[in-house]
Design brief:
By secondary structure, the chain is α/β, with parallel strands linked by helices. The protein contains 15 helices and 19 strands. It has three domains: about 110 residues, Rossmann fold; about 130 residues, Rossmann fold; about 140 residues, 2-Layer Sandwich (Dihydrodipicolinate Reductase, domain 2). Helix 9 packs parallel to helix 10, helix 10 packs antiparallel against helix 15 and helix 13 packs across helix 15. It binds cytidine-5'-triphosphate. Cytidine-5'-triphosphate binds next to helix 1, strand 4 and helix 5.
Amino acid sequence: MIKVITYGTFDLFHEGHYNILKRAKENGDYLIVGVTSENYDKMRGKLNVKQSLFERIENVKRSGFADEIIVEEYMGQKIEDIKKYHIDRFIIGSDWRGKFDYLNEFCEVIYLERTKGVSSTQLRNKERGIIKLGCVGAGRIATRMCLESRYVSGINFDYVYGRDEEKIKKFAEDNDLKYYSTNFDEFLKEVDAVYIATPHLTHYEFVKKSLENKKHVLCEKPMVLKKEMVKELYDIASKNNVVLYEAIKTAYVPGFIRMIALAKSGIIGEIKDVDATFTKLISDISLREFDKNQAGGSVTELATYPLLAIIKLLGVNYKDIDYYSYYGDKDVDLYTKIILKYDNAIASAQVGIGVKREGELIISGTKGYILVPAPWWKTEYFEVRFENANENEKYFYKFEGDGLRYELSDFLNSIVNKTDNIYLKQEEIESITSIIERLYYKGDN
Ligand code: CTP
């Protein structure tokens, strides 16, 4: 008996899928089909898959060609499967030609001609249309988002708005954008969604106006510096039936999501302490980061990431909070330690633009601890450690490019599927914002 295996996502099942499964089956006596899990697709950078794993398995089942269906969950699984199921032939479409030659060591590898003119990507785009995304601001982060958007299908990043015509014209040219405008109303008319990447204190007006004009908004962190403003903006978003996302990149990174889930699973016992650090030394003191009137300082600049980790792990109901800052001769904090007291745990966040410290995250529990080394906010690797070092485990995840593609892809999914942000809730954003607000507006009326 000749056993054949093939793999795929099989999203929105189409003729190309039917043809490859049919021919794969004809190439042997028994066909096993591996369908990718949601997490595996996300990890390998295949974002925006429309159907659930269950629906995609049903698609393959309905074709009638599969004798057995398995789930593909991790990198390197193909070799394991080939050995485990005693596979004779590995079959895949010609778009993968050459990529699986390494499996020749274990079985015969056959690339079959791909059916022309159809793909899941094409169908997804047709079904939901392309979202037109415009960007407000033309700085470094906007450039990075523009590059990252190329990895997210279903979105066209074509438009930039800014006040400085020279600057946005150059930005549009450098990044191959079709349009630029210095008129915000005109810009809003041309887009479905807005990415806001301007200095902190300008966010509020841009977000508000965009939402009122029924545009979906992805706003750089910190979105605003007052909890009341977060509430108000979410109310406007909900009234206008549009999506509002704060671009806290780490919240959408697959490795971080996995790490949080693992920490909360009880693997290290009860979580008693979270210690998260993020520092970024800035030497040019003429920059906005050192200007209190432009929301400069370590906490406004950097605290979002450490606070995200703390809130995700211990929740929003802390009982007490303390700030210890070093100001030097400036009127912004150059280094701050924030201590949060919970009923059964403690947390500390360290941030600095004028003091350097190891950027790690340590989650301590009653049975062990999790160490996420720097840069933990781009979670790719972490270790779970115990008293008995033989039990320690290392975890690796893929972190593609700059990581902005994950938040962009989740933002797009929320728009298309009309779903809430499951990775970052309004109450979590409110909580993080209020912690920043308390230090920034301390002493002000
Ligand atoms: N396939 C094919 N002909 C097509 C599309 C896919 O032969 N027109 C094959 C692929 O080569 C692969 C299998 O079908 O062997 C599953 O591919 P999958 O990635 O699920 O399909 P795509 O349509 O290529 O999906 P996407 O656009 O999301 O990449």
